[in-house]
Amino acid sequence: MIVLAIDTAGTGCYAALYDSNRDAVLGVAGADIGRGHAERLMEFVDAALDAAGLDIKAVGRIAVTVGPGSFTGIRVGVAAARGLALALGVPTVGVSSLAALAADHRTGAPLMVAMDAKRDEVYWQRFAVDGSEATPAAIAAITEARAIAAVHDGALVGSAAHLLRDGVSQGIDSVSIATVARLGAQLSPENHLPKPLYLRGPDAKPQAGFAIRRA
Question: Domains in the chain and their CATH numbers?
Answer without folding.
Answer: 2-96+174-186 (3.30.420.40), 98-164 (3.30.420.200)
